[in-house]
Amino acid sequence: MAFFKSILSKLKQGLEATRQTLTRGLRSLILGRQLDDALIDDVQRMLLEADVGVEATQRLIDRARADFKAGTLRRSEDLLAHLKAHIKELLSSSAAVAGGAVGGGGAAAAVAAGAGGASAGAGSPVGDAASAPRILSPEFRLAPAAPTVVLITGTNGAGKTTSIAKLAHMFRRQNKTVLLAACDTFRAGAVRQLEVWAERLGVEVVKGQQGGDPAAVAFDACKAAVARGVDVLILDTAGRLHTQDPLMRQLGKIYNVAGKLIPGAPHEALLVLDATTGQNAVRQAQEFARFSPLSGLILTKLDGTAKGGVVIAIRQATSIPVKFIGTGETPDDLQPFNADEFAEAMFSEEA
Amino acid sequence: MFDRLSEGFSNVLRKLSGQSTISEGNVREALEDVRKALLEADVSLDVVNEFIDGALKDAHGREVTKSLKPGQEMIGIVYDRLVALLGDAPQIPENATQEEAAKILMADGPGIMTISPGPTIVMMCGLQGSGKTTTCGKLAGWLKKRGRSVMLVAADLQRPAAVEQLQTVAEQVQRDMPGGAQVLFYAEPEKTAEYGKAVGVAVGVCQRAVAAARAKGIDTVILDTAGRLHVNDSLMDELQQVNRLVQPHQVFLVVDAMTGQDAVKSAKAFHQRLEVDGLIMTKFDSDTRGGAALSVKHITGAKIRFVGLGEKLDALEEFHAPRFAGRILGMGDVVSLVQKAREQVSDEEAKAMEEKLAKGEMTMDDYLQQLKSLRKMGPLKQLLGLLPGIGAALKDVHIDDAQLDRVEGMVNSMTPAERKKPEVIDFKRRKRISTGSGTKHEDVGNLIKGFTTVGQLSKQFAGMSASDKVKAVKSLGASGGAGSLAPGLSGMPGFMRGKGSSHSASPKSAFKKKRK
Ligand SMILES: Nc1nc2c(ncn2[C@@H]2O[C@H](COP(=O)(O)OP(=O)(O)OP(=O)(O)O)[C@@H](O)[C@H]2O)c(=O)[nH]1
Ligand SMILES: Nc1nc2c(ncn2[C@@H]2O[C@H](COP(=O)(O)OP(=O)(O)OP(=O)(O)O)[C@@H](O)[C@H]2O)c(=O)[nH]1
Ligand SMILES: [Mg+2]
Ligand SMILES: [Mg+2]
Q1: Which residue has the CA at smallest separation from atom 24 of ligand 1?
Q2: Which chain B residue has the Cα nearest residue A282?
């Protein structure tokens, strides 16, 4: 039901439930105005306030001004379509996303190669077209043979554990069996939080000792996933800042453990990004990708007033695509990412 | 192009400080760069615009173009404005000694008011995941250390396991944090419910908790409320109700320091509903420039009281505007460094060291000693990040704390005579030392070179007044020269001099074990 509803209607719905009515910011701004430099200045302000960042904003604005000068963009009514087209272009144009896993540097490449090597040793030739991961939807890669392993990473409080509940819920609706791994052995109440979700959603959890080695939990969970024949294993990890070297290396270890036990795992390594985050998110994405090659982003908390425009800069810097968006605190509040609607939402303002 | 987002102010400052003349025209131009840097530091657009207008006025007022060093003058204007925006700057007289300067800076502390008769009630609020629950624990630790008893109240009945999280935190503070005062926990776990189904219940929980605290004679009650969106009317109403019926004496808004432009919108909404008394910026241990601090301060007018610098319960510092202005500017955070050093180096040690330095008598043993105290202060990269200009320079450098192990190894392989006079270490001796410590020949060479540089620098520093030292470091930062300080780790021995308080048992040690 709510699943494949558009972001906009969902966003709108969410906002209406909380009094706000969504008026089209740019649309009302344009109303009855000529396209001129002043209007383009207003658009620039909107982009900056959406956290698009100085560089990307400059790029979009330069395009608009150039097309305006050249006479190819003439009417203010066409401005929104023009911007959306170019934002979409920035969100999809970057280095080829080979195999889905995008590493930021040497470490990542080495990790990926290691995982591939391990799986080849296990007798399943990863990289061979026939056994290449099946793509169920453009959003998500499933392993050719179960279990599909999903690694969830991100900074503190970004919404990892909640997003895992949402993903588990999505898979349950597709009649897949799901196992969760509580690899956050550090934060107070973290394991319990995951367990509460699991109980509500009717899925199982593998956990270890509080304060124990998270990679060991990942190890146990991978074994359990194979033994129990589950379809999807999702690993919850502790929140960590990309500046914390030991913790980032620990993440790399979790990534590697999965790959050693299950060919091609993790099949999805997703960075959870809080939409309220500013320009620092670019560094986050780059650093996380260095230790755990990322296949995509989950952009959470889009039900607030933040627009999450920094994903444009992230896409340009790292070629990591956004795969899902989070629009609330219940398991239903997960949507596949849609660039068109995302761009549209960027120019809407609450009354 | 996109991955090379500017390093913020460092570049601007470098450019400005190199400029011998500033004309009417390039004041604007220079400020355009400042504008860009502020935006990249996530300061909200409106605040940036206002800031630039103000700085332009100041520049005209102070006749920047006529001053001898217009670049420096401009930097000063920008810095002063930032400090003023972030909070009232304590005034440090030009001739203040280092002790005096430190004292003035430290005295500008925030604190939590004490209400009599008690209990003092503090309410936390903020967006989801900003760090409220963790900060509750940190504040409880802060109060406990000051002999004030605390009751932590689980007023988040919505997030799964929020009650357990706070309970664990409360137990950790009670068990592991220094101080004798009691830390209690209050909850009504049976009242928790799924999202949206327990709205309003928190009000009663808070009321009963305060009554219980009063009966027990508890000094301070801290209410941990659920994270909520500022646009969620029913949840914001709930907070307002708590505010009305429980009447907290202080309402703290907890804000993630990595927040972007949205910070003003949420802060404004929380402030309109609750009249926020103080701000707490969390996750400042990241490499964010933290422009959101400027935005929320500006929009609410409330003081930034505390800063969160990690997940552990002792990772809380009091906010001092000049330091954070420096950080936003990319000038580093010299004062934090001083404070950290004070926790590790005793007064006598510091004095002895300073005398040696002034006379140019520092030995390898002293150097090793300094290194050891330095290591106690935290991970090297984080520390160096506090130094002006170095943060940016180190961005992509992988700093290995194992390097320090090597240094220790090398010094340990030196004879007492060599440690006293490293000049005597010739090729042969180098070879012996490198073999003895399992390091490379060049490593030993670099160590000696670094040591000599530090010695020279220290001698220069020793003769300066406190404000001159800060200035010297700032100008190094501004000219990008501070990067060269990086190998000379103890380029700050002069700064390690502190007064009083030699915290021998660091609260950190209790927590260090927990996270490997
Ligand atoms: N409004 C809103 N809140 C969200 C969303 N996703 C998560 N949250 C809330 O954000 C807070 C933090 O979420 P968690 O899932 O615990 O975040 P985490 O990344 O696992 O946190 P750590 O494990 O502590 O690093 C919780 O209060 C969630 O309910 C979202 O899409 N919208
Ligand atoms: N690195 C770092 N992490 C922090 C800091 N403060 C809090 N955290 C982490 O941020 C995450 C969220 O913290 P919480 O205290 O659960 O946040 P909250 O605001 O109570 O979250 P909700 O109740 O869901 O709204 C946890 O992983 C904390 O450990 C800080 O100063 N630095
Ligand atoms: Mg979590
Ligand atoms: Mg909480």
Answers
A1: A157
A2: B3
Which SS3 state, helix, strand or coil, does residue B479 take?
coil
Element (H, E) at A150: strand A148-154
pLDDT value, residue A113:
30
Is there a shared CATH topology between the B109-319 domain and the B334-512 domain?
A: no
Q: How many Å is the maximal CA-CA distance in chain B?
A: 79
| pLDDT of residue A170 exceeding 80 | yes
Q: Which helix or strand (DSSP H or E) is residue A171 part of? A: helix A160-173
Half-sphere exposure of A1 (CA within 13 A, CB side): 4
- Cα A107 to ligand 2 centre (Å): 29
Q: How far is it, in rounded angstroms, from Cα B12 to Cα A109?
A: 35
For chain B, say whether A211 makes contact (Cβ under 8 Å): yes
pLDDT for B500 = 26
Q: Could you tell me the sign of the dihedral formed by the alpha carbons of A302, A308, A312, A314, in that order?
A: negative
Q: Is the peptide bond before B388 cis (omega within 30 degrees of 0)?
A: no
- Does A135 have pLDDT greater than 50? no
Residues A160 and B203: their CA atoms lie apart, in Å, by 29
| Torsion angle of the four alpha carbons B69, B70, B76, B78, in this order, in degrees rounded to the nearest 10 | -160
In percent, how much of chain A has pLDDT > 70?
A: 79
| Per-chain mean pLDDT for chain A | 82
* Residue A153 near residue A251, CB atoms below 8 Å: yes
Lowest mean pLDDT segment, chosen from A27-36, A79-88, B251-260, B277-286? A27-36
B358 CB near a chain A CB, below 8 Å? no
Mutate to test the pocket of ligand 1, among B124, B125, B127, B128 (most ligand atoms within 8 A of CB): B128
Spans of chain B, pLDDT less than 70: 1-24, 63-73, 75, 88-111, 323, 326-351, 353-354, 357-358, 360, 370-371, 373-401, 403, 453-516
Closest residue to atom 1 of ligand 2, CA basis? B310
Give percent of chain A above pLDDT 90: 65
The residue whose CA is least distant from atom 14 of ligand 2 is: B131
Distances (CA, A) of B441 to B398, B489, B507: 21, 20, 39
Instruction: Write out pLDDT tens, residues A206-240.
Output: 999 999 999 999 999 999 999 999 999 999 999 99
Specify the CATH superfamily of domain B2-86: SRP54, nucleotide-binding domain (1.20.120.140)
Tokens of residue B345, six digits = 């180096």
By the 8 A CB rule, do A245 and A120 touch? no
**Domain limits, chain B:** 2-86, 109-319, 334-512
- Considering only residues 298 to 357 of chain B, which have any Cβ-Cβ distance to chain A shorter than 8 Å? 311
In this predicted structure, what is the pLDDT of residue B65?
Answer: 56
Q: What is the CATH number of domain B109-319?
A: 3.40.50.300
Q: The pTM is what? A: 0.76
Q: What is the pLDDT of residue B163?
A: 97
CATH code of the domain made up of B334-512:
1.10.260.30
In the stretch 25-54 of chain A, residues with CB closer than 8 A to chain B read 45, 48-51, 53-54
CA–CA separation, B42 vs B48, rounded Å?
Answer: 9
- Tell me the two tokens of residue A32: 């009855």
Set out the domains of chain A in order of their start, with CATH numbers: 2-92 (1.20.120.140), 99-338 (3.40.50.300)
Cα B120 to Cα B471: distance, rounded to the nearest angstrom: 41
Which numbered atom of ligand 1 lies nearest the CA of A155? 25
For residue A130, give Cα distances in angstroms to A97, A101, A135, A264.
19, 18, 13, 14
Q: Which two tokens stand for residue B213?
A: 């605290």
Ligand 2 midpoint to CA B254 (Å): 10
Residue A261 has a pLDDT of 95
Query: What does each C-alpha distance from B219 to A36, A91, B143, B182 come to in angstroms?
Result: 62, 53, 9, 9
Is residue A12 pLDDT above 50, yes or no? Answer: no
Rounded-to-integer distance, Cα B78 and Cα B229, Å: 34
